[in-house]
């Protein structure tokens, strides 16, 4: 039964991927991308990667399609046909795909006991994690403690990506300008929809509570800062879509979101510096308390909080920037049309009348 489920999910993933590449309607492709993310989350669930499924469901099926649709509102819905570019893409993709398929023959069977991943550090994590870290969730032990350097790098990458989007989409107005305070014209009709408002009021509070649960329950079950941060961002974005940016920026202004995106990284790095100050290695949480296990708990909670703050802030900031760009574009279109009308206004010249000419 599990094999049939895997085959069905993989088949639907393949059909969805081919449809995304084939279809010319970019809005439909964005919807299919959300479906692809949801199917991927289901596939990760069947493989037992619940933490990855959390993130894929929130990002791949939630925030990413929304940002793609905001992008389409700026650049257009339909893709221009370009046979030469499509042929060039096929010539690139087909050999790469063939090489990947050939490479899979050298990979060990899935779940094989003699696979390198099973013989390297996995036995130590499985057998010693509880004694060294004191956390039932081995995934959290690995991500937050054993490979804390790597996770710090991931948080810095997310923060840097947010800075990149900020540098590209930052409008000329200040953070408190109408471009960030007013909802985009494309979503104005949605904000007046009574059904959407009621559903949002019902869902936002449980979303926030669930984000808190995922944030602080990551030691004992699937979850952590990455997943909780994305879920927090989904709650704010839903609030902005239903009630407008004017309402959501009163709760979390654009400047505050930018500030918090850096605060999360600083919290993570400060934990490592505090470990150094107590005579231990960087990110060695055992230095944070007299009991090494207690220090691990304190350190993991602190750095997961930093991860959650940065992830949520960057996601919300990207939504603000895209929405502000849409608003600016909506304001520029009437101005451009008005300027065009002014240039086309006929110029009247005083000419002598017929009677004057005859005289």
Automatic annotation (TrEMBL):
Q: Which residues form the Na+/H+ antiporter MnhB subunit-related protein domain?
A: 195-316
- Keywords annotated in UniProt: Cell membrane, Membrane, Transmembrane, Transmembrane helix
In this protein, which residues make up the domain named MrpA C-terminal/MbhD?
A: 11-74
Location within or outside the cell: Cell membrane
Amino-acid biosynthesis as a keyword of this entry, yes or no, is: no
Say if the entry is tagged with keyword Transmembrane. yes
Q: Taking every annotated instance into account, which residue ranges of this chain make up the domain MrpA C-terminal/MbhE?
A: 109-171
List the membrane topology term(s): Multi-pass membrane protein
The source's domain of life comes to Bacteria
Parts of the chain that traverse the membrane = 6-23, 30-50, 56-74, 86-104, 151-169, 194-213, 225-245, 257-277, 297-322
Per the annotation, which location comes first and is thus the protein's main one?
membrane
Family affiliation: Belongs to the CPA3 antiporters (TC 2.A.63) subunit B family.
- What is the name of this protein? DUF4040 domain-containing protein
Which organism is this entry from? Microbulbifer celer
């Amino acid at each position: 039964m599990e094999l049939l489920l895997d085959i069905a999910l993989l088949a639907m993933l393949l059909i969805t991927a081919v449809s995304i590449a084939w279809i010319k309607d970019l809005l439909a492709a964005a919807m299919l991308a959300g479906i692809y993310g949801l199917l991927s989350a289901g596939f990760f669930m069947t493989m037992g990667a619940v933490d990855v499924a959390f993130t894929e469901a929130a990002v791949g099926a939630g925030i990413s399609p929304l940002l793609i649709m905001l992008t389409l509102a700026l650049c257009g819905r339909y893709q221009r046909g370009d046979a030469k570019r499509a042929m060039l893409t096929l010539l690139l993709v087909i050999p790469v795909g063939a090489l990947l398929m050939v490479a899979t023959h050298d990979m060990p069977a899935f779940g094989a006991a003699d696979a390198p991943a099973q013989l390297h550090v996995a036995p130590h994590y499985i057998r010693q994690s509880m004694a060294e870290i004191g956390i039932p969730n081995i995934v959290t032990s690995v991500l937050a403690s054993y490979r804390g350097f790597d996770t710090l790098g991931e948080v810095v990458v997310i923060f840097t990506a947010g800075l990149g989007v900020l540098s590209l989409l930052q409008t000329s107005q200040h953070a408190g300008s109408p471009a960030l305070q007013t909802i985009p014209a494309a979503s104005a009709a949605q904000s007046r929809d009574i059904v959407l408002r009621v559903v949002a009021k019902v869902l936002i509070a449980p979303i926030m509570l669930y984000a808190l649960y995922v944030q602080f329950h990551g030691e004992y079950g699937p979850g952590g800062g990455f997943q909780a941060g994305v879920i927090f961002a989904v709650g704010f974005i839903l609030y902005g879509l239903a009630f407008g940016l004017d309402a959501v920026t009163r709760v979390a202004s654009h400047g505050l979101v930018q500030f918090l995106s850096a605060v999360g990284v600083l919290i993570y790095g400060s934990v490592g510096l505090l470990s150094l100050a107590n005579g231990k290695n960087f990110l060695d949480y055992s230095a944070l308390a007299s009991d090494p296990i207690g220090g691990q708990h304190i350190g993991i909670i602190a750095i997961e909080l930093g991860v959650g703050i940065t992830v949520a802030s960057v996601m919300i900031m990207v939504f603000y920037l895209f929405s502000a760009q849409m608003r600016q574009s909506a304001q520029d279109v009437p101005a451009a049309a008005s300027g065009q009308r002014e240039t086309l206004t006929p110029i009247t010249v005083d000419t002598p009348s017929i009677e004057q000419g005859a005289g």
